Amino acid sequence: MPTAFTVRLARSGQDVPVADGQTVVEALAAHGVVVATSCAQGVCGTCLTRVLAGEPEHWDMYLSPEEQAANDRFCPCVSRSVTPLLVLDL
Ligand code: FES
Questions:
Q1: Where in the sequence is the domain holding 73, given as residue range(s)?
Q2: So what's the pLDDT on residue 1?
Q3: CATH number of the domain where residue 34 is located
């Protein structure tokens, strides 16, 4: 199980730490970056975000196994990161 990791916002170059027990959406919001959410449970896909580098750890039920395996999108309301750094298209 990963604990803390960092997400990098590709457009601004900003690094946002994600603490153990904190979702990526929560961490981003704490830094003033709002990702639209609806279910916040990994079901609806509203929060779907493109991943540019790093490997997400998928906890959602929205993407198919094949889509998850592509590792180019993830649901930051529930999913985390396998790699210490995840670069997002934000
Ligand atoms: S808000 Fe529904 S999947 Fe993230």
A1: 5-88
A2: 46
A3: 3.10.20.30
Q: Which atom of ligand 1 is nearest to the CA of 36?
A: 1
What is residue 3's predicted lDDT score, i.e. its pLDDT? 83
Tell me the CA distances in angstroms from 54 to 35, 44, 45, 72, one per residue in order: 19, 23, 20, 9
Tell me, using a 6 A CB cutoff, whether residue 46 lines ligand 1: yes
pLDDT in tens, 21-74: 999 999 999 999 999 999 999 999 999 999 999 999 999 999 999 999 999 999
CB of 4 within 8 A of CB of 59? Answer: no
Cα 23 to ligand 1 centroid, rounded to whole Å: 12
